[in-house]
Structures are given as structure tokens and as C-alpha cells.
Amino acid sequence: MQITDIRVRKVTGGGKPKAYVTVTFDDCFVVHNIKIIEGKSGVFIAMPSRKTRAGEYKDVAHPIQPDFRLELQNRILEKYESADTEVHEDSIDD
Fold first, then answer.
1. Which of 34, 45, 47, 69 could lock 59 by a disulfide, CB 3.0 to 4.6 Å apart?
2. What is the DSSP string of 81-94?
3. Ranges of H-type helices in the chain
């Protein structure tokens, strides 16, 4: 499976979410709402999730293999740090 497109929407507002990402795989499958989060050790990605009845958050979609997750995170963060990303003035709330 190849990552064929990454679109980053940076957000402002001073919160922990720094951007929302859409990733396309093989030009035929898309995953929306991957978050770039500012953590204690720097930025990282969080996969799309939903809140369960028990109040826990469960990923809706996520990589199974650690190597692919690392590749996905590296590619997303490269795109985030590059100049060709969209900036939204309003923060996006979950």
C-alpha cells in the first residue's frame, strides 16, 4: 500500500491540536481527521477515533504494523513542516 497524497490543514488557537490531516492510499482509499498533536516530547500523530459509551477513545482506523505507522507518521510530519500546507485561522474542535 502506497501513500499517494497527504493534505495538512494547520490550525491556530494555541491548543494541543496543531493540524488535521487527510491521507490517500493507492489513489483509491482516504482517511480523514488524523490529528497532529503537540505533546511533551514534540509533535506526533493521533489516528481518527470515537468516544465509546464507557468514555474511552478508540481508533476508527489505524496501522497494524509498527513499520508502516512510523513511515506514515514521518511522511505526515514532513508534510506538516513543509511550506505547502493550508492554514485555518480558527481552531477545529472535536
1. 47
2. HSS--EEESS----
3. 66-81
Q: Are 59 and 50 in contact (CB under 8 A)?
A: no
> Are the CB atoms for 36 and 18 separated by under 8 Å?
yes
CB 31 within 8 A of CB 23: yes
* pTM check: above 0.85: no
Q: How does DSSP assign 2-33, residue by residue?
A: -EEEEEEEEE-SSSSEEEEEEEEETTTEEEEE
Can you read off the three cell numbers belonging to residue 73? Answer: 507518521
Measured between alpha carbons, how far is 8 from 85 in angstroms, rounded to an integer?
5
